[in-house]
């Protein structure tokens, strides 16, 4: 690696750290390229030497957030355990992460990317990795389902949990208190697991 490459990588790392810090402090909606580069102590044009635009930079931050969430979901994993217990663990781990990093979490869903700009395949793959934990936990409940059907069920479950968490943390009129939120996540997952077991065809033999 040349000295020029090293300087570029160093600047990129500093920009990412400054951007992450600003999002955690003020939210992604307040993000401004000029403010970030002021924090870094570099000219505004320096950002565009290492990132295509602000959207590209936010994608990098979101990638780091997904990596953190992945670690949280992996902690205490029970791949061969009871599906309900494992799904509950995942749901509460998600809630715990959101409470710890609320603004980084919001950036995953709230940043308005430029119209017509596609989400890169590598970022979609990162999102898919997180759903794989749900698929793994759901599979024993209905092993006859295809991978596509299990993926759809995992997306539905994630969407439901995400909606419960988002509504409550936004303190909307149907939101739940912190203690009730944990209990209702557990109860909701229990109901879904029970329903999947009831609709599963009886095993032969």
From TrEMBL:
Entries under InterPro entries matching the protein: Homeodomain-like_sf, HTH-type_TetR-like_transc_reg, HTH_TetR, MT1864/Rv1816-like_C, Tet_transcr_reg_TetR-rel_C_sf
Keywords: DNA-binding, Transcription, Transcription regulation
GO molecular function per UniProt: DNA-binding transcription factor activity; transcription cis-regulatory region binding
Gene3D superfamilies tied to this protein: Tetracycline Repressor, domain 2
Residue ranges constituting the HTH tetR-type domain according to the UniProt record: 9-69
Residues of the DNA-binding region: 32-51
Short name of any one Pfam family annotated for the protein: TetR_C_33
Keyword Transferase set for record: no
PANTHER family xref list: HTH-TYPE TRANSCRIPTIONAL REGULATOR BETI, HTH-TYPE TRANSCRIPTIONAL REGULATOR RUTR
Protein name listed in UniProt: HTH tetR-type domain-containing protein
């Amino acid at each position: 690696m040349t000295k020029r490459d090293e300087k570029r990588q160093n600047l990129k790392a500093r920009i990412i750290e400054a951007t992450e810090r600003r999002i955690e402090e003020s939210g992604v909606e307040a993000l401004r390229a000029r403010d970030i580069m002021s924090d870094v102590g570099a000219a505004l044009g320096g950002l565009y030497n290492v990132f295509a635009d602000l959207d590209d930079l936010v994608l990098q931050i979101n990638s780091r957030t997904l990596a953190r969430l992945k670690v949280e979901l992996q902690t205490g994993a029970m791949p061969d355990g009871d599906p309900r217990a494992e799904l509950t663990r995942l749901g509460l781990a998600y809630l715990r992460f959101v409470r710890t990093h609320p603004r980084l979490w919001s950036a995953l869903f709230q940043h308005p990317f430029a119209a017509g700009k596609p989400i890169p395949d590598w970022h979609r793959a990162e999102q898919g990795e997180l759903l794989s934990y749900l698929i793994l936990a759901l599979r024993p409940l209905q092993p006859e389902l295809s991978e596509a059907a299990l993926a759809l069920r995992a997306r539905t479950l994630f969407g439901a949990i995400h909606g419960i968490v988002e509504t409550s943390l936004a303190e909307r009129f149907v939101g739940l208190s912190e203690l009730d939120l944990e209990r209702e996540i557990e109860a909701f997952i229990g109901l879904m697991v029970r329903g999947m077991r009831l609709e599963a065809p009886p095993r032969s033999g």
